[in-house]
């Protein structure tokens, strides 16, 4: 496949690059305006679980700026592979429109933008921008089938772990499906489990943190990116446990208020705190070894060994013609 070579980037070529990129960006906005309007109206604005969608393009722009040291304008070589990706993505988007599948069309934004980046800047531009382009995936909600599958599994885990915690601290609790039976009341995990519904938000936070910490070792970043499900479970179990304690020790009315109103807003700060603790713990566990200086004559492990004035120096340190005896 041929490439569009650009040996040197002068001011005129730079302006042309900026203009062409801006035109392609405007085309993306125009083509995807209906689905973007649907995302804002039906999810970002009206659903508190997806309000983070407003921050996704902003954070993607920050990632581009943060990685600006990796972008070398004289290495931008546009590739015709981008046209192929754009055409395939366009076909998928048309099919999604025909099926009235707005979620699928929303997800095609990522390969469409990636194809345009490849067309304009080539593989060097992809190497620079792929975290920002990939992070745009979190603009769209998960398809209903996958969301329901994840919700069922995580709700069951949250219920079982919460019952275990309640029994451990001495409160009577038994699980009946996704309902926790207490001594005087029943707590339904299915009815209000925004900790489960906010799983995409937790994934966005964890993967965004992994992208942000690009100078850390790869293992630390992988562990942070994969920690979204455990964080969601811990946050939700904490919420359920506190609510059950309020049910038993205070009143069901107060427990419902905490469970439905206040706790939903506290889930994200709690998740960020857990993520911060995880990052601090990984920094303690995976410490890069310091480089040691070479061990020379007269030293041990980089520490000099004192000698008395009349001590004969090692043979290798005696100048020629100065051998004693």
Largest sheet, in brief, is: 3 strands, antiparallel
Gross morphology is elongated
Oligomer state of the chains in this structure: single chain
Number of discrete domains? 2
**What's the total helix number?**
12
Computed Rg: 29 Å
Report the mean per-residue pLDDT as an integer: 78
Order of strands in the sheet with most strands? 3-4-5
Topology order in helix (H) and strand (E) letters: EHHHEHHHHEEEHHHHHEE
How many β-strand stretches?
7
Give the helix proportion (percent range): 55-70%
Low-confidence stretches: 2-8, 291-305, 321-325
Share of β-strand residues: 5-15%
From the helix content, strand content and strand pairing, which structural class follows? mainly alpha
Q: What's the N-to-C terminus distance?
A: 78 Å
What keywords describe this structure?
12 helices; 7 strands; 325 residues; 62% helix; two-stranded antiparallel ribbon; mainly alpha
